[in-house]
Amino acid sequence: MTTAAETTPSPHSDAFPRHWLGTRPRLVVASAFMLFLELALIRWTGSNIVHLSYFTNFVLLGSFLGIGLGFLRVGRTTRPPYYSAIALAVLVLVILRFPVTVDRDTEGVLYWTSLSTSGPPPWLILPLIFAAAAVVLMGPAELVGRCFPELDRLEAYRYDLVGSLTGIALFTALSFLGAPPVAWGVIAAAAYVALLWPRGFGGRVAVLVPSLVVVGALALETLTAGALWSPYYKVTYDRFRWQGVPVMDIQVNGIPHQQAIPARERLSWERQYALPYERSAAHRLDDVLIVGAGSGTDVAIALAKGAKHVDAVEIDPKLRELGGIYHPDRPYADPRVTTVVTDGRAYLERTARKYDLILFALPDSLTLVSGASSLRLESYLFTRQAMEAARDHLKPGGTFSMYNYYREGWLVDRLAATAQAAFGHRPCVDVVSRAGQQAVITAGLAAADQSCGAEWAGAAAGTPPPSDDDRPFLYLKDRTIPQIYVVTLILILIVSLLAVRAVAGPYRRMRPYADLFLLGVAFMLLETKSVTGFALLFGTTWVVNAVVFAGVLVAVLAAVEVTRRFPTPPLPAMYGVLLAGLVLAWLVPSSWLLGLPLPLRAVAAVVVAFLPIFAANVVFAKRFADSHDGTTAFGANLLGAMAGGCLEYLALVVGYRGLLIVAGLLYLGAFALLPAHFTATPGIPFSPAYL
User: Fold this and answer.
1) What letter does residue 113 receive in the DSSP assignment?
2) Closest listed residue to residue 578, CA positions, set 480, 671, 651, 508
3) How far is CA 337 from the centre of its chain?
4) Which secondary structure element, helix H or strand E, spans residue 428, and what is its range?
5) What does the pLDDT average to over 677-682?
6) Rounded to 5°, angle at Cα 681 from 679 and 683
7) Radius of gyration of the chain (CA)
């Protein structure tokens, strides 16, 4: 039987002119570019299309589809993938010309894209972005895939991983520096030119013109938007005077987010800001903790109320920077204020300080954690365990309070019930305005420590139970996957099946690698569990996220190196180690890990999370090394990862811990589909007919 690998032209034939880069450095550069471009697309499209604030893995799924298709194209064409640069230019121009933002006259917190928007409707712009991401990433993936036949299977995979780590490191460095998108565009343009290396006039036009369009469009955005680029948002702001009062209005990713207003005016305009102080029976403010300090208005109010010391916790460094420079009251310059830039839940788990008042001050991230389909930056702040952590950091007589525009009555009741479960008594609930469900929830360390205006009547019938650390989905009322997600994911899978058939030909080409497909599905669930687990243990910050992704790649690289250099147990034994690692991850509760000192917590978390990842990739490396057609095998695995990205949404129903069970079943399925010679009894010959 003739295979794709056998029909691939020799790397030194006329079909593949000799590249100025050798195979290994070209593979590293192409892999680094592929991952860098994927991260940049996720970050940039989300800053201009508000729907993507809640569908961050939409671009990720499109990227996985494109990467898988790129590998499957290897051997079917010899033409350079100029289409990738052209598609990127078209995508950038369309998004800049037709951004989707929240209407500026809308106030309140956004969740499940419930607010009205301006720009193309989601049914039009989201499929366009999904398809464009697939086409854009297909080009670099094809360049990576063309290097694979020139090297040993595991050596090629090794350099692919080194390149991926390089891409993560580069994007992380730019995030740390607050680099604007034009920097991403310059790197993409340079990579296209270096990798495609156009010779003829037509090739130069196909590469240079779209590359210049991308750089020029992103430079124009950088110069005209007046934006600050934090690791989480595209932050824009306006400063003006309203009725003689200085105001700084801040938007993030096109969404109205917060206003920096003098404390005196804010207290007179909105009663919710005064209620946490009125509901405290002790009225003592020696030490105050504000989570979600933002641009500083809540800090200024605490100081105006007489706080002697304020710890201000804010996750976004750019919002803190804006408040430090432009807030009319200059609260961050006050010597009574200490600022900590980190995740609020992580701060509560690390600090030993006790407070008279702990305040969750409108902590709305308005975005999801990259790599986790349904986890918002503040999700772990609103669980029962988080409120218990706040309770444990109160001084005798202290109070905990939170306020926001909750938009739904059941949401107010759910949070009040969560506070009741954590503190052991009913909290004070003040609904300041029924419009938008503006409410304040306050709980004293003991019932006598709170002074309620009226007793809370209790949760209404149908109120969902408190969210917890395993299912931290505050805004999901029912234990189900929302219909909008179900329909979207079904359409994605249908489009993906058609695209694979059109690009790669008959599915029988991938049939021998069905087990590798399932390995990709299961591994994506393991990665999601790792991202969310580390977010809980160490914070939902971008630094933690980057470290986890890098750690996953290091674990994969270590598995490849071990497989290349040392004898490893047969695949059935490695599957046993993998399943044992999943059982260990299931048995070790997050609450136990959170109770450990930080250094021990880090060690234990790495062992628990990365043991199954390491074992899974030893399994993959051994199976991949045996594959007859490396590019098709790798493409099947990547398409499995895309399917795993869809299955992540099962966490909404079964919780993140439940994903371990789903992954275990998938690994058992992969084991069942192993070619016969891997499970044959030693000494009994097998038939290589599966090839």
Assistant:
1) T
2) 671
3) 31
4) strand 428-433
5) 58
6) 130
7) 27
Q: Is 305 helix (H, G, I), strand (E, B) or coil?
A: coil
pLDDT tens sequence across 508-548: 888 899 999 999 999 999 999 999 999 999 998 888 889 99
Residue type, 108: G
- Section 411-419 average pLDDT: 94
Render pLDDT for 236-258 as a digit per residue (tens, 0 to 9). 999 999 888 999 999 888 788 88
Residue 677 has pLDDT above 50, yes or no: yes
Separation between Cα atoms, residue 253 and residue 360, nearest integer Å: 22
Closest CA to 75 of 3, 152, 140: 3
3-state secondary structure (DSSP) of residue 218: helix
User: Are 376 and 369 a contacting pair, CB within 8 Å?
Assistant: yes
Helical spans, DSSP H, in 588-650: 590-594, 598-625, 630-647
pLDDT digits (tens, 9 = 90+) for 4-55: 333 344 444 444 457 778 899 999 999 999 999 999 999 999 888 887 766 6
Question: Checking DSSP bridges between strand 438-444 and strand 394-405, what pairing results, if any?
Answer: antiparallel
Cα(160)–Cα(137) distance, integer angstroms: 15
Sign of the CA dihedral 597, 467, 314, 374?
Answer: positive
**Exposed, middle or buried, 63 (CB in 10 Å: 0-12/13-18/19+)?**
buried
Residue 452 backbone class (left: φ over 0; alpha: ψ -120 to 50; beta: rest): beta
Residue that is written with structure tokens 């790599």 in the block = 371
Strands 355-361 and 288-291: parallel
Round to whole Å and give the CA distance between 484 and 393: 40
Dist. CA 566–CA 564, nearest whole Å: 6
HSE-up of 639 (CA within 13 Å, CB side)?
A: 31
Beta strand residue intervals within 66-111, DSSP E: 101-102
Q: What is the DSSP string of 3-18?
A: -HHHHSPPTTSTTSPP
The stretches of 327-471 forming alpha helices (DSSP H) are: 344-350, 384-392, 409-423
Helix ranges (DSSP H) in 539-589: 542-565, 571-587
Task: Please report the pLDDT score of residue 412 as a whole number.
Answer: 92
- Residues with Cβ within 8 Å of residue 12, at least 6 apart in sequence: 18
How far is it, in rounded angstroms, from Cα 460 to Cα 39?
43
